[in-house]
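Please check this chain.
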Amino acid sequence: MLVYGEAGTGKTTMVLQAATAAAKEGLKVIYIDSDRSFTEQRFNQIAMDRCRELSELIHLFLPETFSEQRTIVESLENYVTPSLGLVVVDSVSSLYRAAFDGEGSIFNLNRDLSRQLAYLAELAKQHCIACLLTSQVHARLTSPASDIEPVARRTLLHLPRLILRLRNTPKPSVKEFVVERIEGVEGGRNSCLVALKNSGLTEARG
């Protein structure tokens, strides 16, 4: 599953909440924090009185470069156990973007990103493990120019069977979740409103 959206739309809160929910079911979680957005304070707000217990099941990796991210992703098979239920990469494109802005060639970076996505897809298929990825965004180069799309769109949108876009609304605490693809088929853009609170995401009322 791929989740993308502008800053402040709740991407990290969503994946933290998913990781916490998996841990509550007794499942192990691999959390690759390429964005450095996982904070103890935010986790404690979501996990509440079970934060110490649940943190034992969430294994945090902090790659500093895109090549380190690739190495971690390609070594995930070593961490597969019957209790592994979720792999999170937040965000799969932040270190890609940093490498692109540096010395990385676009061809090699896209190849490496494709390899990571293919590896995660195969891992999910073979071991029935959920993979939840987030992506940074940038403005479209084509009309409508005011719209946004995931970084490395052509590469990133190739494999995920479920794509969810998060949008800000005029009310800062309310976000719009838009289903853009489901089961590999482009959806009808069904959407719902979600409230962003300290304890996580809940149904928006009123």
About this structure: The two ends are 29 Å apart (CA to CA). The helical segments are 11-24, 40-47, 51-55, 66-74, 94-101, 106-127, 153-156.
